Amino acid sequence: MSYAEDNLLFNFDAPIPTGIDLLHNPHYNKGTVFSSLERDALGLRGLLPPRIQTTDQQVARVLENLRRKTSSLEKYIFLTSLQDRNETLFYRVITEHVEEMMPLIYTPTVGQACQEYGHIFRRPRGLYISIEDRGRVGELLGNWYEEDIRVIVVTDGERILGLGDLGANGMGIPVGKLSLYVACAGVHPSQCLPVTIDVGTNNRELLDDPLYIGLPIPRVTGTAYDELIDEFVQEVQKHYPYAVIQLEDFGNHNAFRLLNHYRDQIATFDDDIQGTASVTLAGIYAALQLTGQSLRDQRFLFLGAGEAGIGIGDLITAGLMAEGLSESEARQHCWFIDSKGLVVQGRDHLVAHKLPYAHAHPFIPDLLSAVQTLKPTMLIGVSGQPQTFTQAVIEAMSAINDRPVIFALSNPTSKSECTAEQAYTWSNGRAIFASGSPFPTVTYQGATFVPGQANNAYIFPGVGLGIALSGATRVTDEMFFEAAKALVSLVTADDLQQGRIYPALSRIREVSAHIAAAVAQVAYRDGLARFSQPDDVLGYVRAQMYIPDYPSYV
């Protein structure tokens, strides 16, 4: 492939619909912004109010109506409807007001939206593939209306955020994630495909709900499940050979297994495992700038030993190995507590992904005792169990450390292990805090603290963009390690002075560009890229990012 002809991924030249069809097409609709010449040329005269307006006026109207809504779920519904009728305006609003909009289109609001998806359902978005479609997945992919897909986010709905099995209602997650790919990293919306694999649900409330949108059957497992997933993966390679598949919110027992099975065959990654790890490692590196310590000085205690926790532990291990430790020495820095207590050697029925972190140590049954015994420097919550970082736990961390690092990462906000206010108050203002979902600024004893948000949106959009632009055939752990380093490099002295260990979300597109360039560099260096390397990778990435501006049609 030549760089000039094949590497420019995000240029499109499709026929423009006319008349009422144009106004009903969210990809091309400009609403009241259509010029007088466009109205004549495209058969729109009389179909729109006569006054021609600017995009800024449209944005102002959207914000006025949005801010009248009295609940986050109503705002989510309003924004989804906007996306369905005017895609460019939707992304213009999101990119210009990302700090206000991200909690509405993603965590924490998307959690409630998924719980109520069948009740707020208005217009289908994404591709649904059910267990009844075995043998026909290629046909279903052929029904999709775009031909050049570069990013696919797929879920089977079994472990949506910290909310559990939501079945086909989990479609809100791929839709939300891909909205962030566009808004945060400039992947073109026409190249994004949200997919839900519906194999049933074991959620009794959903099975009994007449408005549930999925198959009302118990969740299918075993060979039938594996065959459907494999058929999907193989058909994607045929229909969209340049697409990366992001695995999202699969149950622990499938997430690790599917990632390990496919990661050396296709371009795929699991955001819950690898994206969470990358954004957390970046936060750790930033926190070390505040404590003045090194990664080698740390002992990490995790509450939760599922996808997120083990993924973070694995990337920390990689970071320590890069500093010269052996793998076994590096793993000794990471300790895990699951629902039964401390993960140690000799415990019965430990699943495979926990075994590398089962250390030789007496069993400890609870978190507080583990903090007091192990004396960790950093406490990381990925349990989905709210309020488990109690006052006693945080006070114990504060007694051990001058600057205790407290990461309460479970999503949505209702599942967070503690709030930002609790972390700062119970540590007498000494905690370095980050959460998965946003918390407001905290004032304590005259000091103002800006909580860090360890949001995967800092990582996965840039990673996906870098893979798409390089045409990478595989997604490696080093890409996530480099993504973490790129992210922490953008944390400023002003950020750290406020206690914020991540850049402001308003800089998210800049962050994504740097991460995409870092990921692409790994692909070029390791011979994984199918497209030629440009002279200026970062400049090329920036030039390719989708900007939500209306084009001229005449």
Highlighted features:
Hemocyanin, N-terminal domain; 14 strands; 554 residues; globular; disordered N terminus; Rossmann fold; 4 domains
CATH architecture of the largest domain, by name, is: 3-Layer(aba) Sandwich
Model regions low in confidence, pLDDT < 50 over at least 5 residues: 1-8
Strand content: 5-15%
Q: How many domains comprise the coordinates? A: 4
Overall shape: it is: globular
Q: What is the number of helices?
A: 25
* Computed structural class: alpha/beta
Largest sheet, spatial ordering of strands = 8-7-6-9-10-11-14
In short:
Helix content is 44%, strand content 10%. By secondary structure, the chain is an alpha/beta fold.
Question: What do you see in this structure?
Answer:
The chain has 554 residues and is α/β, with parallel strands linked by helices. The chain folds into four domains: 19-100, Hemocyanin, N-terminal domain (Up-down Bundle); 109-266, Malic enzyme, N-terminal domain (Rossmann fold); 274-457, NAD(P)-binding Rossmann-like Domain (Rossmann fold), CATH 3.40.50.720; 460-494 and 503-544, no CATH class. 44% of the residues lie in helices and 10% in strands. The chain has 25 helices and 14 strands. The protein has helices at 3-6, 19-23, 36-41, 55-68, 72-85, 87-96, 98-105, 109-115, 117-120, 137-142, 172-185, 204-207, 222-239, 252-262, 271-291, 307-322, 327-331, 367-374, 391-400, 420-426, 460-470, 477-488, 493-497, 508-525, 537-544; strands spanning 127-130, 151-155, 192-198, 244-247, 268-270, 300-303, 334-338, 341-342, 378-381, 405-408, 432-435, 442-444, 447-449, 452-453. The strands form three sheets. It has a seven-stranded mixed β-sheet, with helices on both faces. α19 (391-400) links the parallel β9 and β10. The longest helix has 21 residues, at 271-291. The chain is globular and about 75 Å long. Mean pLDDT is 95; it is low at 1-8.
